[in-house]
């Protein structure tokens, strides 16, 4: 008789799953295609959406960057909503299926909108890097269709990203040593494959959009997602499913409200007098951090009578385990806060850095590299950093120390430092590019300076992403309660969202603060007439300061003290 899984996972019929017939790497192969296609669509669109907005829709440079940042920010912010929906209502399987269809619809509308002339303003014969007063901007109705397609995609991304990784981990039984080992290898392979999807997006798809037809490129995104959905549905009988639990948001609120109601009560001197209803195997040991929340577990006479009759009110009393689960989430928040600025720097790679590349010499022999394809160096840096860490750093640490690799907190710190360094280098490179632009202001749209000068900034920030993403994903999944893992994945992804939103806000603030009647400002109509070097320098300083705060928060997290 086949062995049954030991983690309470069930098959598609609702029966306890059989190990040999469900789950494992084969099931994940059907699931991961959804995430690869999502990356192919979202990143493929984001990296050269700016050039479309400037060159075809005739929007100013700063406005274009804001639209791209808002689109990416909303995509990641909605991941938190997707996580709550999956954990509390639909389950991960149905959430993935529904939101993948929404993603396909969004890319399909975008493909149509870029094909139909009536959904675009009248063309003008001017290179998109230079603003012309003769170019008509897109009308409100034309922009509305574009916004509908983008935010349908954002909604689809939000539902997918928070659920796919969680559903993949459901395919492994953590109670089995062999499958537990496979699970530890999963996240590296997962991130590796979705990064390959990004690499295809910024090379093959960008080339098709720039050199063949933009609508064809977006149509391929829609078709690839449709194929991925069919593959995903074909694996239905092989998947392992976990039943949805009570809303994690409700649990957070129950503990907070119960603690507020009992805020005037004194905590017992012995913690064993606090209420606990979980078995020994599922209990979480009490900690002294955030003691104010422990008041939610104080048993009053009224609580004792209700518990005795098995009708206790969760809004009046919570178990120690539930209180500790809330503490786990709260402890992550300082780390969460100090990683937002990292993704603000990342946002520049899909906005201003691509626009920089569009003004520079990109020809190799008779082939002209699409500006957005320069982000391939950024993606390559991620892959190289992952491979270097796995094949060189980990073996070195195992040989010369007792460690098997960097901790998740150390990875995040390395990512922040590399990001600060990358933006500093970007500032220096932009000084050189601007000097060439000033000398050739009246002679050429394409500056006589090689686009490969941008490689260091792509590489440093890209390597930072390799450490930051894996560090955050590991921290937020392993250090969160079991019933909140999808929501906590969404919480991690909201740092990307807020990074993009802060990027948009920062661009607006800097533009307003630096623009005068005689000065174009740091970020304005055209980067050749702005001071993008100053903007990059400002980001480098802000991230370095943030890195200092992160080191303090990480020290507090490790020592479990309140800072």
From TrEMBL:
Its main location: membrane. Pfam families: PTR2. The chain crosses the membrane at residues 67-86, 92-112, 186-209, 215-236, 328-349, 369-389, 409-429, 449-469, 490-510, 535-557. Keywords: Membrane, Transmembrane, Transmembrane helix. It is a multi-pass membrane protein. InterPro entries: MFS_trans_sf, POT_fam, PTR2_symporter_CS. This is Nitrate transporter. It comes from Solanum bulbocastanum (Wild potato).
């Amino acid at each position: 008789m086949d062995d049954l899984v030991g983690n309470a996972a069930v098959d598609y019929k609702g029966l306890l799953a059989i190990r040999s017939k469900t789950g494992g790497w084969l099931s994940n192969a059907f699931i991961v295609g959804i995430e690869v296609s999502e990356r192919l669509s979202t990143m493929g669109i984001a990296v050269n959406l700016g050039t479309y907005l400037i060159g075809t829709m005739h929007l100013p440079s700063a406005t274009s960057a804001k639209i791209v940042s808002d689109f990416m920010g909303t995509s990641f912010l909605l991941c938190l909503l997707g996580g709550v929906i999956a954990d509390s209502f639909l389950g991960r399987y149905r959430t993935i299926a529904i939101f993948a269809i929404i993603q396909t619809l969004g890319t399909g509308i975008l493909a149509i909108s870029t094909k139909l002339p009536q959904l675009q303003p009248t063309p003008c014969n001017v290179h998109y890097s230079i603003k012309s007063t003769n170019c008509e901007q897109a009308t409100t109705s034309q922009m509305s269709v574009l916004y509908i397609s983008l935010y349908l995609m954002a909604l689809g991304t939000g539902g997918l990203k928070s659920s796919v990784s969680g559903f993949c981990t459901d395919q492994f039984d953590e109670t089995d040593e062999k499958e537990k080992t496979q699970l530890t290898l999963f996240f590296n392979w997962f991130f590796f494959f979705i990064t390959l999807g990004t690499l295809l997006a910024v090379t093959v798809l960008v080339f098709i959009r720039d050199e063949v037809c933009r609508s064809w490129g977006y149509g391929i995104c829609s078709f690839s997602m449709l194929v991925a959905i069919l593959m995903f549905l074909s694996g239905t009988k092989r998947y392992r499913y976990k039943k949805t639990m009570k809303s994690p948001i409700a649990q957070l609120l129950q503990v907070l409200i119960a603690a507020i109601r009992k805020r005037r009560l004194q905590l017992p001197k012995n913690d064993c007098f606090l209420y606990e209803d979980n078995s020994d195997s599922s209990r979480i040991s009490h900690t002294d951090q955030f003691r104010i929340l422990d008041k939610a577990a104080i048993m009053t006479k009224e609580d004792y009578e209700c518990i005795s009759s098995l009708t206790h009110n969760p809004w009046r009393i919570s178990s120690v385990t539930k209180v500790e689960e809330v503490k786990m989430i709260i402890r992550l928040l300082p780390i969460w806060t100090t990683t937002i600025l990292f993704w603000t720097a990342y946002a520049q790679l899909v906005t201003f850095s691509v626009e920089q590349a569009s003004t520079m010499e990109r020809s190799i022999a008779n082939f002209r590299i699409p500006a957005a394809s320069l982000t391939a160096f950024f993606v390559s840096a991620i892959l190289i950093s992952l491979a270097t860490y796995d094949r060189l750093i980990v073996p070195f640490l195992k040989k010369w120390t007792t460690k098997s690799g960097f901790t998740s907190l150390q990875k995040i710190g390395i990512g922040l430092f590399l990001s600060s360094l990358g933006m500093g280098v970007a500032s220096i490179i932009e000084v050189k590019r601007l000097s060439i632009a000033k000398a050739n202001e009246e002679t050429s749209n394409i500056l006589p300076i090689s686009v490969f000068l941008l490689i260091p900034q792509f590489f440093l920030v890209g390597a930072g992403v390799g450490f930051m993403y894996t560090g955050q994903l590991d921290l937020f999944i392993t250090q969160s309660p079991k019933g909140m893992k999808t929501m906590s994945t969404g919480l991690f992804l909201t740092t990307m969202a807020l990074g993009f939103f802060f990027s948009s806000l920062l661009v607006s603030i800097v533009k307003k603060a630096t623009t005068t009647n005689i000065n174009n400002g740091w970020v304005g109509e055209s980067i050749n007439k702005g001071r993008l070097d100053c903007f990059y320098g400002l980001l480098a300083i802000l991230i370095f300061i943030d890195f200092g705060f992160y080191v303090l928060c990480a020290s507090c997290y490790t020592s479990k003290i309140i800072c």
